[in-house]
Design goal:
Blueprint: E1 9-14, H1 25-34, E2 40-45, H2 50-66, H3 69-72, H4 75-92, H5 96-111, H6 117-145, E3 149-153, H7 159-172, E4 177-181, H8 194-202, E5 209-211, H9 215-223, E6 233-234, E7 265-267, E8 270-271, H10 282-286, E9 290-291, H11 294-308, E10 312-315, H12 324-333, E11 339-344, H13 353-361, E12 364-372, H14 376-381, H15 388-400, E13 404-411, H16 418-430, E14 437-442, H17 453-457, E15 461-463, H18 470-473, E16 478-480, H19 486-503, H20 511-524
Parallel strand pairs: 1-2, 1-3, 3-4, 4-5, 5-6, 7-10, 10-11, 11-12, 12-13, 13-14
Antiparallel strand pairs: 8-9, 15-16
Helix pairs in contact: 1-9, 2-6, 4-5, 4-7, 6-7, 11-12, 12-13, 16-19
């Protein structure tokens, strides 16, 4: 009889930079799954380290200093792409002159402003300082934990830090197994993408295995020696399509995460999505949609609150609609109130005032709404299956009971015309008092990973940056030679942000801006949820359970045909 493999010492890391609102669910879910199997798992959340946040703050302050306001657009949103490409070039370049030339191109292709030599040198100095700090952090972690397995959860914006960490780990502990996973496999490194092939070749010397998709079962089998060790990429096909039974998922273990850095705790009730919007990669990455029972989910959030003292949660689900009614009833029946953010589809149910009141009384705090466009033409191109009148009704309905409405808009989708874009601006202006905040993101194209990646390409794709830069960038960026052009898309994004400023609609990226947004929401809506600063571990809030409707809101049947 073959002896069971020895338990492993595992170190899992989340690198910077990731907006520090919710704790890292990915590495925590892995820890929670692997430790009951006997493995000793440490997690490290580098994202909240002041030494790195300081660089992030200074980096964008520098960009703000030389990019005119009217060209900054969504400064931090698009700036993540600048920082990622810059930092990747920083760790890979061989020719300093080519590196400096490329950095100028990267900034100019995003902000349409050419930085001068002094600004380029200042950006390079910040990158140098960042990697000096990052190297010291990684080496100290490895020295302290002495892991046998080193895992990094990687998103596109964190890829340079992850690659640098793997290189350091291989140098310092050549016998350690290096494993990479994370959301980057939904976009820049999607399965069968041209980037993945190049990435695999270029990282052969420092990354042993890559796990694409849901990680718990694959990582456990890798540690148990049940996967081919000579294989570099594992996905669901290596376990016959097996997916984690969410009914058996372990309670998230945040014991090594300093939750005082986060306004929210987190958790999830489902994985994947029952819809397939054209630009989205959720179903491509996660596969079949599945969920926990409402009773299980409600019980888990009660246990997390009682254990960790965080009453405010942000659910990491891609969509809450299939479970929100039942979950709300379960949470209302629970002994303690909790508050929660969730992604919500603007469907007819969300325009029903009785449902909105139920959700609000159950603690629904902020609805993240992927509205994307005010043009029916573009919504149809996206396969959103909603319409502008429906969007208006949903915003009014949620705001009427005080739920924050965080609206997400996609600018420059293939086929969007100037008339379509103007329709988005007009809809936002019409609904301005019912919008808590707005985030405008330019359309980004990936050859693989999005639901319609193959449909859009058809010979129109080309590299954004020069071919000679590919060795430095490693994660190449493609754009489409169609309408609207990249330059037009980013010009529209600048106009979008100017429109928000004129209307006074926030786009908050730090706690001060969030506080100001909360004050505005309170002025606009008598039933407004508590401000973020009202949540304190020493204070129990349950005002949600006493909320009543202020006035009648037209039910869904009275606001028009939604096209279903």
């Amino acid at each position: 009889m073959t002896a069971a493999p020895e338990p492993k010492r595992v170190l899992l890391v989340l690198p910077p930079f990731w907006p520090p609102q919710i704790p890292p669910v990915g590495i925590v879910a892995l820890k929670s799954h692997l430790e009951p199997l006997g493995h000793r798992v440490r997690v490290a959340d580098a994202n909240v380290e002041d030494r790195f946040r300081d660089i992030y703050t200074r980096y964008f302050a520098l960009i703000q200093s030389f990019v005119p306001l009217e060209r900054q657009g969504n400064l931090y949103g698009v700036g993540t792409d600048v920082l990622k490409n810059h930092f990747m070039a920083h760790i890979n370049h061989q020719d300093p002159a080519a590196y400096r030339e490329l950095l100028g191109i990267i900034v100019a292709q995003t902000y349409y402003t050419q930085p001068g030599p002094a600004q380029i040198e200042a950006l390079i100095d910040l990158a140098t300082e960042y990697f000096r700090r990052w190297d010291a952090y990684v080496l100290e972690l490895i020295d302290q934990t002495r892991p046998q397995v080193f895992g990094v959860s990687v998103f596109s914006g964190t890829a340079p830090s992850a690659l640098r960490a793997f290189r350091l780990a291989r140098r310092e502990r050549p016998g350690m197994l290096n494993v990479m996973g994370g959301g980057i496999f939904a976009d820049h490194l999607a399965a069968d993408s041209p980037n993945l092939e190049v990435f695999l070749e270029r990282t052969r010397d420092c990354i042993d295995q890559l796990i694409i998709g849901e990680g718990e079962i694959l990582f456990a089998k890798l540690l148990a020696g049940e996967l081919d060790p000579t294989q570099r990429v594992y996905d669901a096909s290596d376990i016959d399509g097996q997916l984690l039974d969410l009914g058996q998922a372990r309670l998230l273990d945040f014991s090594e995460i300093d939750l005082t850095h986060y306004p929210y705790s987190s958790g999830y009730t489902s994985r994947s999505c029952p819809f397939q919007c054209a630009f989205c990669s959720e179903t491509v990455l996660w596969g079949r949609y599945r969920r926990k029972s409402p009773a299980q989910a409600a019980q888990e959030f009660q246990r997390l609150y009682q254990r960790d003292g965080k009453q405010l949660f942000s659910f990491s689900d891609s969509l809450m609609n299939p479970i929100v009614d039942q979950l709300s009833h379960e949470l209302l029946a629970a002994s303690r109130a909790v508050y929660w953010d969730a992604c919500l589809r603007a469907d007819p149910e969300a325009a029903d005032p009785d449902k909105a009141l139920l959700w609000r009384r159950a603690g629904f705090y902020k609805a993240w709404l992927g509205l994307e466009s005010g043009s029916q033409h573009v919504l149809d191109l996206m396969n959103k299956r909603i319409n502008p009148r429906q969007i208006q009704a949903v915003l009014a309905n949620l705001a009427g009971v005080g739920i924050k409405t965080a609206t997400l808009w996609l600018i420059g989708h293939p086929g969007e015309t100037e008339e379509d874009f103007q329709a988005t601006l007009d809809l936002i202006e019409l609904c301005q008092d019912d919008i808590y905040d707005a985030e405008g993101t330019p359309f980004w194209y990936f050859p693989k990973g999005q639901s319609k990646s193959g449909h859009w390409g058809q010979g129109q794709e080309r590299l954004l940056y020069p071919e000679w830069a590919s060795e430095m960038l490693l994660l190449r960026t493609w754009i489409l030679d169609g309408e609207p052009s990249r330059e037009v898309t980013y010009e529209r994004q600048n106009r979008f942000m100017a429109h928000l400023r004129r209307l006074g609609i926030p786009n908050p990226y730090n706690l001060l801006e969030m506080h100001q947004a909360d004050q505005r929401w309170r002025r606009l809506h008598l039933n407004a949820v508590p401000a973020l600063v009202d949540f304190d571990p020493m204070v129990y809030l349950d005002e949600c359970r006493g909320v009543t409707a202020l006035s009648a809101i037209a039910p869904v049947s009275e606001v028009g045909d939604f096209g279903f």
